[in-house]
Structures are given as structure tokens and as C-alpha cells.
Amino acid sequence: MPVITQARTFARELIDFIDASPSPWHAVASAEERLLAHGFTRLDEGGRWQLAAGGRYYVVRGGASMIAFVPGSQPLAETGFRIVGAHTDSPGLRLKPRAALAGDGLARLGVEVYGGPILATFTDRDLSLAGRVVLRRGTNQETRLLSFDRALLRLPNLAIHMNREVNEQGLKLNKQTELPLILGQLGKGDDAEAHLRRLLADAVQAEAADLLSWELAVYDVQKGCLWGANEEFIADSQLDNLASLHAALTALIATGQPTATCVAAFFDHEEVGSESASGAGGSFIADVLTRIGLQAELDEEDRRRAMARSFFISADMAHAYNPNFPAAYEPDHKVMVNGGPVIKTNVNQRYTTNAETAARFMGLCEKAGVPYQQYAHRSDLGCGSTIGPMVAAQLGVASVDVGSPMWAMHSARESAGVNDHAYMIAALAAAFGS
């Protein structure tokens, strides 16, 4: 399949964005860098907001959730909001607060499983740590981002000679005893905990005694790439869901002076249920929209009118048809990589799409000149969910669930289509312009 004009540029930008964002906190920092470069102003949740005509703004909560917005030129009560939501987190492994383990001459790190990763894909890969640490600074605290851009850790597989059924039964890993990651060898008298603390402190140029706490994700240091005979595919970590975040961010930045107020909301903790102060199940999105309405001097009647005229697009990746596993798919709902954005439907409301919102998104795709596809899960398999249902229920807005098709969702190394990323950017740009 030929790659459409500019799609490869967008794909390489996506790869660079993901590779600079090995944790949710880095993803927000990367997004913030792009927003600042395009004239957006950061707002403080604890301060009083003053929104100027023609302004462009964003606000961060919890370090790993962000909402950016561009006020519309027309009255908010008459146009409502155009909202695109995505999430910053990806499934994987997270370091425990007291992670260092010593034994058999090795330092290992204890981890917890975050969300639902395909654990086998983390074995025998060049792994490292990224996230944030909190330091003591006199009577205050300071948070710094941390990322080791080198192979630091490993989860070695058991040789097939000791696991003869692995190819028939699959690799099964005990989450408590078989996931600790090898960090290094210990000399006689070495303290594994002290070694880890020194390593982290040195990475942020601080004293080990000042290191108070951390939130660190395990990530694969292999960079993303284009692959395929015509370089029509993308391979990287965290395509679910940084590809959707990047598409929404790119579309919002490209939006000039919209008629309706445009909002891109990026939430942490989607992979573990979103029930947190900074997750989609919390008050973040409602708080921001309320404050925008107050700046527009909406009364309660007009605020409700604005919500009734709003439209929410929950953008999360979709399951592309894998020809090696045809039995896993609903036969009449095979969505193809590079076939265009996917409209996701589930009658049990795991996705928010209904007939009217599906048709509305179809119209946006047609306006943008991009193809679209429709997906439903097999009836005898459990269906995943997104931030869509909880945000739509909380706000009371019309909503649709969409995503770009991908292979190997929740693997340490995922794949998607070059054209699809450009298609999604175009569709979301049309939504912001509607």
C-alpha cells in the first residue's frame, strides 16, 4: 500500500514523541514542550484564571494528566465544546517503593504489574527505568523526571531445556516470584538498596539521602521505527495510547481560531480503571470545563445548554485484524491496518458509540477525506473499555469511541499503520473545526 502524502512525516514525529516519553510524566512533559512552542500558556489550578480572547491554554494535574484548550470565537452556550480524550499511561511494570532485592550475588528489583501487559513480551529485552522522583529540599520537596536512556535491567527467560512445554503451553510468569528484574552483580558486603538509591540520585544529580520517594515505570529502550516493504507500518512501545494523544495534540495545535471551544484531555490511570484524582473518573475534566464556563460568564442555564451542544470523542487504539489468528475476530468486523479510523461499538456500553454519534464521526471523516471502519468484539469474548463511558456519563455529552487499528495491543512492542496516524489527525482536526 502506498503511503499518503505527509503521513510518513507524522509517523516519524509520533515515534520521536513516544521515544521521548517513556512514562506518563514524560508524556505530559513532551506534550507541554510542544504546546509552549506553539503559543499555549500554562494555567495553575490553584490560581485565578484570566482567559484572553484568542488565547491558548493548558493545565496539568498530578504530573501525568493534562487538559489543553482553545476558546471558541462564538458564544459557548451556542456552540458547546469539542472534546477529544486520550490517556497517557500504558500497561507494564512499575517499581515497588522498596524494590531492591539481594541474593545469589545479584541485585534485583521487585515490580508490580500495572494494568494488563503481555508479560512474556518483556522478557529478554533491553529494559530501563523512567518516571519521577521526589527529593528533599530543606523544608520543601522537589519533583524531578528521571530516565535512564540505556539498557539497565533484564528479565531473562528460562531456557527451553528447563521449560520444555513453553512453545505448546505458552510462557507463564508468576507475578511475585518470577518478575523481579536483574539490575547487576553485587560485591561482597554491597547493599542492594543503597546501590539503587545511589543510582537514582546520581541520575538526577542529587544526594542519595535526599531521595524521598519515586514512581518509576519499566520501559524498553529500543527506539521506534518504520517497517514493512514500503515502510507502511510503525513499531514502538506505548502506541496504546500515545498515538491517540499525539494525534489529538497535533490536531489541536493546528487549529487556528475555532468557532467552538476545543479541548484535548489526556488522563493518567486509564489502564487501571481511571478512578483517581487525575484519572478520567475524577473531577479534572468537569473542573476545567466549569472554569472555562465561568470565564465565559455562563449561568447555570447556559452551562447546561453548552453541554447539550458538546461532542466528545474518546480516542483509544483499536484491534486490527491479525490474519494469523482469524478465530479471534468477529467475522464481519475485521478492521485493517491503514484502513482508516475505527468506530468502536459495544451494546453493553463498554464503548459510548450510538447510531447518531457514529454517523457524526463518519461525517467528520468524510469532511476530512479519510476512510473509516467499524468494529465490534466477538460476542463470546470479553470486551475492553475506555475513558469514554465515564467521561460521557459524568458530563452528559454525546460521545463516540474511536481509535486507530493496531496489532499486539499491550505488548512491549506494538505495531500500527503509517497512513492511519495521518487519517486520525485529519479526522480530529475536522472535529475541532466543526
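The above is record 1. Record 2 follows with the same two-line structure.
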Amino acid sequence: MLNIVTLGDPILKKHSTLVTSINEDVERFLNEMFDTMYMGKGIGLAAVQVGKLDRIFVTHVPRDMPRVFINPEIVETSLDEEIYEEGCLSIPGINADVIRPYAIKVQAWNERGKPFTMDAEGLLARVIQHELDHLNGILFIDKLDDKKRNRLLKNYERKAKAG
């Protein structure tokens, strides 16, 4: 299992770089990412969350199959938005309502290096957006207003000191 990087580590604010080839190392890393996500009871995990600045994330939302996204890019978003409570394996114990587009179209490579385009809506669309934000150095708390973010950060720091 890989170690999950938590809030405060500067790597979480960095932009990830494009993956130029998919080889045995990438395949092994993807398997480790899935294992780590499942152990953490998550439904998405970005490479940066385990300390690697590659444009990779994995998802497995309820009632969907496990998915791999390499070099993902959102090419379309719906005008309809939805509020939903998000959490993050890199900010354990903190959840907040975040507004995001309800549906998206995303392009990426799969684990075999084949390009694909897919439409996603609801929870899968949200997870894809959340994980793609990680690849751009954005955390879900960055999408909150200052007052709410500061309150959550104080709660997080208090829990971290007590833990």
C-alpha cells in the first residue's frame, strides 16, 4: 500500500506532469493506487495524493466499474450544477458541500494507453472533477468561501493535534 499525502504537504499544491508512456512500472503503480484507495475506503485517488506528480487518477464509485484516467482533460461541462458533500483521503475527517457541474465529458488514456472519451454525470462526474483538480494542485476546500474553509482548517488542525 502507498502512503497517502495529507494536507500541509506542499506536493498537494503542485501541477502534475503528463505521462509520456505506459509501461510495467505504471501498471504496477496503478494496481498500488487501487489497493491504497480501497484500503482508505475512497472512491477516487490521484497520483499526487501518494506523492507522485503524474497526471493519473483512479476511480471506483458505487454501481460503476474501476476506472483509470491517464492525462485526463475535461472537454465539456454541463450548465446544470449540483451541491454535494465531498471528502478527501488527503484531508481525513473533513467534509463540505461543493458546487460542481452535474455532467462532464472527459478525454484520457486508459491503463493500456488507449485514448478514450466518455460522458459522466452525477457522482462519477464529481469524482472525476475532484481528482482532476488534484492534478492541478487544487483541493476541494479551495472551492469554499474563506470563512468556511478557515473553519474547516481549524477543525482539521484540532483533530490532527488530538490524533
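Strands lie at 44-46, 56-59, 67-77, 81-86, 96-101, 103-109, 115-121.
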